[in-house]
Each structure stands twice: as C-alpha cells, then as structure tokens.
C-alpha cells in the first residue's frame, strides 16, 4: 500500500529502473568489504533452505528436542484500550499474552528462532518489517536486514563503506559514540553547519564543491545524518531540506546513512481520525510522519537504520537496515563472519507482536500514536517548567522539539560578566571566545548541585580544514536535556538547573 507521493513524479517507473540498473554500487565499498568472502558454511546453510524437507547433516546445530525451553509467553498491553500507554502505565487496562512455541503453531517457531540462522535475520521477521516499511516509506526495490540495534548497524556500515584516510560527512553536533566508532578505522569526519532546523544544505553543497582532493584527499562519499530529533540538537529536517540534501547527494554521488531511531516519536501530528476509522492507524499515521530519505531514494543511495530501542525497549538490541540488495548482501556477509544473526528471543517476540496473534502492524502503530501522546505530554511539561524556572532569567533559551527525546538548551553567555570575545587563537582558525571554559565551569556546578545534562562539547565535531569561518568551540554554549523522565524528574531537575544557572551568572 502506497500513501506517499514521490518527489520524482515526472520520472517513469521504467526510467527509475534503468537508473538503478546502471549504478555500480561496488565502487562505494571499502577495501575490507571488497576482500571479504562469504562465510562458506552459511552459504551452504542458505542453499539448504531452498528445498523444503532437505536433510541437513552439515550444520552443528543442537537438535531442537534438546532445547531446555518449549514455550515463551509475553505479557503485553491490550491494544483494544482507547489509550493503551496510559492504561498500561496506570495498571487499569487489560493485558494480552502472546506466545511462542517450539512444538505448537505460532508465527515463528522456537525451533527456528533458537537455531542458527543467516546474518540478515529470519525471513518471518524481515518480511514483517519489510511490510511495515512498505506502508510507511514505500521504498522502491529495497531489502531489509536485521541488526543488533542502530549502533551495531552503523559500525558495520562504516566498515562496509570506509577506508583509512576517507572523509565522511556529518552534522557539526552529532552522536559522538557513533562518530568515535569510525575513528579507529581511519575515517575522518567533516562537519556540516547546522541551524535551528538542522543540517544546512547550502553548507553541504559548499563543502563538496570546494573540496580539493590534492590537499584534502578523496572527496567524501558518505553522509551520516540523524534527520528526526537529531541527536543532540533535537532538530527535525523539513521536507524541503530533505529533498535538497538528497539532490545534493545524487549530484555528488553520496551514500546517505539515515540513522533514524526517533522517527516514530513525532509530536503535534494532527492525525486524521476519519482516516483511522476508514483505513486504520498505519495509513493515518503514515500520512503525517516526516518523509524519509528512503522514501525518495530512486537510485539506491540510502541505507536507512531503524530500531526498536526507543519505541519498545533499548535492551532488546534489535533493529533493521533497509538498503539496496547489493549493500544488503555485503552487510549480511559481514554479519555472518562477525556478530552472527540477532538473538532468537527478540526475533520471536517481534514476529508474534506484529503477527496475527499479537498486535499486528496496525495495533503496533496504535501503540506508537499512544506513546507519542505520552511523550508529547512530557515535552510540554518540560517546556512549561523550563519557562517558569529557567527562561524567565534570560540566561537560557530553548526551541520546542517536534520529535524525539531531547531539548537543546542554549546558554546565553553574552550576559556573563566573564564572557570574552577577544581571545587570541592558539592555532590558526582556533576559538576566539572562552565559551568552552565557561560551559565546562557551568557543567561542574550543575554536577555538584546534583544534576547531569550533556554539554554540547561532548557532541562537537571539530572542522580540521579551518574553512567554516568560526571554531565550533565558540558555539558549544548548549546543553542536551531529555524530557522522557518522570514528572518529578523534570520538575526537580529544571528547578536545580534554574537555581544553579542564576548562581553561575551572578
């Protein structure tokens, strides 16, 4: 089912197919990925799955009759409740039990879930997630592979696409746990300037058009971006910016790593109730969710990463990567010879949850909408308390996030008596203010007061070209704060923040 309008409406399906068929995806691969051979044991295992009833005496699988488990029951909220999240939290709603069995019928037998499998994950799970993708993104000719969450998927994508000495593009503030994972591979990061609305397309164009391979090495061929509730800034790219970025990526032959764990956590959606009644939750929500890069990917340059971490539970360590079939095959080859397939318990749970005996896809999307409503309530509470306890002083401001879990709080250091804009840079292009020092001092005061917020310096990517006009350390006057805690945490935390901020400025 397709609910999204293509950005390439003037291009016929035949033309799109021709464009895709002429793309040589192998040129994007790292030397490691080019040299990697398929796991020969897994190759034989896959061949054995083709013909039902094949007697397999080649694998070292323990026989399922020796598994010390025959049934798993998952107690989940009833999706028949009007507001399932609130009913679940208050303990007033009904509960459902969905079960996985080894010897009885179910969506995914434990005989299969607990056996060795292929790196891509089990077909039942991949098919369910591909169906969800189709109804939300309508991607042309893409393949789903499972991952152990987005961190696992990203580090594998870095290995798939990056060689020592390569430069990758990213937002100037980004999730440093992931960018740090690329550094031991010899990959260097090139930051793109941001504003309140996220990555600035014109700066991406500037970097690529001014790139000098003689002095800077090979032009970047990968963009890593978090388009919804960008971590840490909380910004969400508009449709116009996404279209501009995709066009730039097409023009400069860039692969987009679309890391989107917060995609489903959108607020102020305005879901049409009549659409829910007529077509169900999936269609109604798909109509108002942001347009993904994947949904406009007519030439297979997007590798999209989704996760259950933010919408079910982070400890599940289960996600999915959607890409063209060539990249999917190479990713699966890496998984087959490294982490192996995701855990069977998580795959069994997802299969039953999205299957006919569980919530189904539409019930899952009803849970998502209810979850969004609860997080929106917490966001609104955060912003109300922030205005009362913090913003009233004039020492800090914050934009209201459209999605995700974070508020990006700007500290107005220009009001601080010791703020200086006339420091002499210690290196060419270095910082000219004492912003970083003052923010470090404020961070320590907050810590001593019993409050932790993440300082912007934790996420800052330093531009090593010296061509951005100002050093990022002059722009680290921000904290990342989360609004997904309890009401008490929000109120107490922002009270401490406001009080400590006033002490810091006076």
Report the mean per-residue pLDDT as an integer.
Answer: 91
Largest beta sheet: what is the strand line-up?
3-11-10-9-8-4-5
- General shape: globular
Rg (CA only): 24 Å
Query: Spans of 5+ residues with little confidence (pLDDT < 50)?
Result: 1-21
Task: Describe what is shown at a glance.
The protein is of the alpha/beta class. It contains 18 helices and 15 strands. Helix 16 packs parallel to helix 18.
Account of the protein in words:
It is a single chain. With 506 residues, the chain is an alpha/beta fold. It is built from 18 helices and 15 strands. The strands form four sheets. The chain has a seven-stranded mixed β-sheet with strand order 3-11-10-9-8-4-5, sandwiched between helices. The longest helix is centred in the last third of the chain and has 30 residues, at 360-389. The N and C termini lie far apart (59 Å). The relative contact order is 0.13. Residues 1-21 have low confidence and may be disordered.
